[in-house]
UniProtKB/TrEMBL annotation:
The keyword Signal applies. This is Peptidase S1 domain-containing protein. It comes from the Bacteria. Keywords: Plasmid, Signal. Residues 60-199 form the Peptidase S1 domain. Pfam families: Trypsin.
Length: 239
């Protein structure tokens, strides 16, 4: 593994990536779906990936993504018909840098703006893999396989190489646009157990922000997949 990975120095995906999300349509907003973020003047800013769907303590729906994806405006995704729909406004965002233990996570609200449409959502990763309760970071260990799903790289998995108090590194490649995507390990029954969100990487590995500390800090609950997991994509709304 490259020394840069061991030192948590993998580079953040640059802004001004391919923000034409019409090339990445999805039937519902779900973990792993491509999103575009905007500047405060509504011009396109960045291409990122939706992370875990969550709810705040007062019931506001949201989705986690990387903090460096915030540029002052909101975010959108493209439906299956390639219609671009606004997701919402950012509620929280932390980006203290792109090295070491620097924080890099954001909470994007869903439908928290005037005239917002009710968007189809799906708790499953790209509408396929069911999601269960988040992992305890204390159970992560070197060699354990983690996966991430990003709009650029798709599904990538690899062994854990380092765990810190706020980050986990694993040897799975990442590319521009993957930032914010779900990082998880697969339980024996095939379900996904949330670990973090991808925040930076290269062709040798990925660094993820652990979500457990932020769930506590922001009083959030991850939306998990309900028992009727065979329901069509876009209809899963259970917590």
């Amino acid at each position: 593994m490259a020394a840069a990975l061991g030192a948590l120095l993998l580079t953040a995906a640059p802004a001004h990536a391919d923000t034409d999300i019409k090339d990445h349509p999805a039937p519902a907003l779900a973990p792993g779906v491509a999103i575009a973020t905007f500047n405060s003047d509504s011009t396109a800013a960045d291409a990122c990936t939706a992370g875990w769907l969550v709810h705040t303590g007062d019931g506001q729906a949201g989705v986690l993504t990387a903090g460096h994806c915030f540029h002052g405006g909101g975010a959108a995704f493209a439906t299956s018909s390639r219609t671009v729909e606004g997701i919402g406004r950012f509620i929280e965002h932390e980006h203290s840098g792109s090295r070491g233990e620097d924080s890099d996570i954001a909470l994007l609200g869903i439908g928290n703006f005037p005239s917002a449409k009710q968007l189809p959502t799906d708790t499953r990763i790209i509408g396929i893999r069911p999601v269960v309760a988040p992992a305890d970071p204390g159970h992560l260990s070197q060699g354990q396989t983690l996966c991430h799903f990003g709009q650029a790289s798709g599904l990538q998995c690899g062994p854990v190489t380092r765990v810190t108090g706020t980050k986990v590194e694993f040897a799975a490649p990442a590319d521009t646009g993957d930032s914010g995507g779900p990082v998880y390990y697969r339980d024996s029954d095939g379900t996904a157990r949330p670990v973090g969100i991808a925040i930076r990487g290269d062709n040798t590995g990925t660094v993820a922000e652990l979500i457990r500390p932020w769930l506590t800090r922001w009083n959030l609950a991850v939306d998990t997949t309900t028992a009727n997991a065979a329901t069509a994509v876009g209809q899963q709304t259970g917590r």
